[in-house]
Amino acid sequence: MDEVWWASLYDLIRRDFGFEVERDYEAAEILDMLLQKHGVSGEDISGELRELLKNSRVLVVGAGPSCIRVEGIHTLYDVVVAADGALRCCRSVSVEPQVVVTDLDGVELDDLTSFNGFIVIHAHGDNVSKLVSLVPLLYGKRLLGTSQILLKTSNLSVGGGFTDGDRAVYLALKNEAREVGLTGFDFGESVGKFSKPYLNGEVPVSPVKKRKFYWGSLLIELMGLSWGVRIHEACSKVKDPIPTAPRFLQV
After folding, report:
1. Rounded to 5, what percent of the chain is helix, strand, coil?
2. 168 occurs within a structural domain
């Protein structure tokens, strides 16, 4: 599952959703330019992130309705990685992740300016305006960039996975985590209130979101098979296990 494999997979995903590759290229080039102006070596930050994740037990928190269970399980892991709006979920129960993986649509500027961990920002065709408006305000933070095209620079790499959640899983595996636990990966009929800043509660899943759930579930399973690393639904020692998400969603 190298970067060429992921780039080829993104072509398939684009066809499924009707996304335009030209917009992905534009977004990647803009994020690369913005990170160059940051003036901090992406290679140095990547090295620090790898040191944090390597051989660690990593808990990846998605923004699904069950994300608040992080409160009872985060101490069982060495590192907590939040997927986008899951950063707000973690903070709602006084858990501070060390890493956030985001395409910037589940968080607001204050969430990131107050965050002192690693911020892995993903570029795609639908978030150019957020890249331009938010990234310059984060200079001084430990920023890394990912994209879904083969435009690899010292500041940008191909981010395996499709949604923020499975990209976070990929990040842990790529950096040699020895175990990956998941919470907030419900893949069900509701979208959690932390998925977007403007949500006040759970909302029904849309057909497009359901398709994204399908791809996220599929890619996580494929990554587990490819790396041979234990990826499991995290559960507390004192509570009943969380039901495992469907292995392959039928949509």
Report:
1. 45, 15, 40
2. yes
Q: Does 164 reside within a domain?
A: yes
Strand partners, 232: 181
Give how many domains the chain has, as a whole number.
1
The answer to whether residue 106 is domain-embedded is yes
Tens digit of each residue's pLDDT (9 = 90 or more) over 127-163: 999 999 999 999 999 999 999 887 767 678 887 888 9
Q: What number of helices (H) and strands (E) belong to the chain?
A: 9, 10
* DSSP 8-state code for residue 76: G
* Assigned token pair, 73: 């399980």
Task: Say if 111 falls within a structural domain.
Answer: yes
Over its C-alpha atoms, the chain yields an Rg (Å, rounded) of: 17
Task: Pull the structure tokens for residue 129.
Answer: 């305006």
147 three-state secondary structure: strand
Q: Report the alpha-carbon distance of residue 145 to residue 35 in Å, rounded.
A: 8
Percent of the chain's residues with pLDDT above 70: 92
Q: Which residue has the higher pLDDT, 21 or 158?
A: 21
The CATH number of the domain where 216 resides is what? 3.90.1480
Smallest CA-to-CA distance from 105 within 142, 63, 158, 42 is with 63
Contacts (Cβ under 8 Å, ≥6 apart) of 202? 65, 190, 191, 192, 193
The boundaries of the domain holding residue 174 are: 3-233
Task: Tell which residue, 119, 107, 111, has the closest CA to residue 63.
Answer: 107
